[in-house]
């Protein structure tokens, strides 16, 4: 069994155990705020179950119907988790509004606080571990799952503080207010996960990933790499697919061009934290490129070298050679 699936199983079994404890605390106290916490635990369990399946599917090799692999399913997993969190937040708000008009008497509040306090510590520890390992493994599903567990722990801490305040003051309406605030907090976090998943499914550019690739290329650039442009980065699960145009001296033969493209691929794969598949379109240089070309003893140079153009996300992502970019500026 892969490390990703073992981590999701840890999240799943932890979620089931904590859900049972939280519902026991709710039935013990009849607290609307504790019900909020317990209801979100159902989401944790369902989301972890689907995350297990999505990680299994994303690990399957490429096939005829899926030439880019199955990694996109991880965005569906994040979408499901975000949607369930959003629904849970709406249900929690509905129940809180009901209890605002029809309040329930609270019992055994101190025991309930102890129980959910224990679940908060466990949730935070497991969430921190899963999120840390998810980042190391390049899995957005694990990162989302770990972050969700940590958010759950933070909301539980806020809930406990509110219940302690209610116990000190005797104002039972605080219970409903806590439930409403946490419901809105849960809705907001559900929205953020939905936004992330939709962006991934729509191949929205990941600015941080593009920046990482550009910095690697700039740091390791060779004189023969006259410019890089039209660079795009897509994430498929724990793999990246990068394509770009690389301007090379036009007198290079096919073997030399292949060697330069392979060098780009190897450098990026060596320095990126996730496996990267590179597709490079080789462009021949033009006379206008001479002004920023650093190739020494070039047999076809028509202009003197003037300045070195640093590569950044602005000029590398544009679909034009850098002399056109310089003219536009």
UniProtKB/TrEMBL annotation:
It comes from the Bacteria. The chain crosses the membrane at residues 7-29, 41-59, 79-101, 113-131, 176-194. GO terms for cellular component: plasma membrane. The lineage of its organism: Bacteria, Pseudomonadati, Bacteroidota, Sphingobacteriia, Sphingobacteriales. This is Cation diffusion facilitator family transporter. GO terms for molecular function: cadmium ion transmembrane transporter activity; ferrous iron transmembrane transporter activity; zinc efflux antiporter activity. It comes from Sphingobacterium siyangense. Residues 209-285 form the Cation efflux protein cytoplasmic domain. GO terms for biological process: intracellular zinc ion homeostasis.
């Amino acid at each position: 069994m892969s490390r990703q699936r073992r981590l999701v199983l840890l999240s799943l079994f932890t979620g089931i155990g904590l859900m049972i404890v939280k519902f026991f605390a709710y039935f013990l106290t009849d607290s609307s705020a504790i019900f909020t916490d317990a209801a979100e635990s159902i989401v944790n369990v369902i989301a972890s179950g689907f995350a297990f399946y999505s990680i299994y599917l994303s690990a399957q090799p490429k096939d005829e119907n899926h030439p880019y692999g199955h990694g996109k399913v991880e965005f569906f997993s994040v979408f499901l988790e975000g949607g369930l969190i959003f629904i849970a937040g709406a249900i929690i708000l509905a129940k809180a509004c009901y209890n605002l008009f029809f309040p329930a008497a609270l019992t055994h509040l101190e025991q309930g606080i102890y129980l959910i306090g224990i679940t908060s510590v466990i949730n935070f520890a497991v969430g921190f571990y899963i999120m840390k390992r998810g980042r190391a493994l390049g899995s957005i599903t694990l990162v989302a799952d770990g972050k969700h567990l940590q958010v759950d722990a933070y909301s539980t801490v806020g809930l406990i503080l509110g219940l302690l305040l209610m116990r000190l003051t005797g104002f039972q309406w605080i219970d409903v207010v806590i439930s409403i605030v946490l419901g809105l907090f849960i809705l907001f976090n559900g929205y953020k996960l939905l936004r992330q998943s939709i962006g991934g499914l729509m191949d929205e550019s990941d600015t941080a990933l593009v920046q990482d690739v550009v910095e690697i290329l700039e740091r390791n650039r060779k004189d023969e790499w006259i410019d890089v442009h039209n660079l795009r980065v897509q994430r498929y699960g724990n793999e990246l697919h990068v394509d770009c145009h690389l301007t090379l001296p036009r007198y290079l033969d096919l073997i030399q061009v292949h060697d330069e493209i392979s060098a780009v691929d190897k450098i990026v794969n060596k320095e990126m934290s996730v496996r990267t598949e590179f597709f490079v379109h080789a462009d021949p240089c033009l006379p206008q490129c001479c002004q920023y070309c650093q190739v020494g003893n070039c047999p076809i140079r028509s202009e003197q070298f003037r300045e070195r153009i640093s590569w950044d996300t602005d000029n590398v992502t544009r679909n034009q050679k850098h002399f056109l970019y310089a003219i536009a500026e």
